[in-house]
Specification:
The chain starts with a helix and ends in a 6-residue tail after the last helix. It is mainly α. The chain has eight helices and no strands. The protein folds into two domains: about 90 residues, no CATH class; about 45 residues, no CATH class. Keywords: RNA-binding. One of its GO terms (biological process) is tRNA 3'-terminal CCA addition. GO terms for molecular function: ATP:3'-cytidine-cytidine-tRNA adenylyltransferase activity; CC tRNA cytidylyltransferase activity; RNA binding.
Length: about 150
């Protein structure tokens, strides 16, 4: 993919997610690690910081009387992401794969797998530093739920 095409895709993604980003950006401390990861970082992969910068510039253009405040919020947001160790969360792999899930749940593939995978991704992100064994124990408690 050419760099120009990549930039165009990134601009489209930033525009499409602007409202959602603004909500999180204004009050990042009110959101879980998983919410920030999945809504602000994962969609943008290694370009997530560009998303923050572009949105900060757009916010500054919308309210030029509060540029310093916007820059401070961007700095605070980056500090929050750093504290939560989110910088490269887009590279984090699931601790348990689909074959393992089918075996543990003793079920064939189906719609239940996506629901469970989505749930487990949130659980894993919100349980920073959890191990595969931690997740396996947690999955055991979910057998009647999924």
């Amino acid at each position: 993919m050419s760099q120009l095409h990549q930039i165009a895709n990134l601009v489209g993604l930033i525009s499409a997610n602007r409202h959602q980003f603004q909500k999180i950006f204004q009050n990042a401390e009110d959101y879980t690690r998983a919410e920030i990861a999945m809504k602000v970082i994962k969609p943008f992969t290694e370009h997530w910081k560009m998303n923050v910068l572009v949105n900060s510039v757009l916010d500054s253009f919308e309210d030029m009387n509060h540029v310093d405040e916007t820059l401070l919020k961007a700095t605070q947001f980056f500090k929050t992401c750093d504290r939560l160790e989110l910088d490269d969360i887009y590279n984090e792999k699931m601790l348990v794969n689909g074959k393992e899930l089918m075996s543990i749940m003793n079920r064939k593939p189906g719609a239940w797998m996506k629901k469970l995978n989505d749930y487990l991704k949130v659980w894993q992100y919100n349980h920073q530093g959890c191990t595969k064994e931690d997740m396996l124990k947690h999955i055991e408690t979910l057998k009647d739920t999924f």
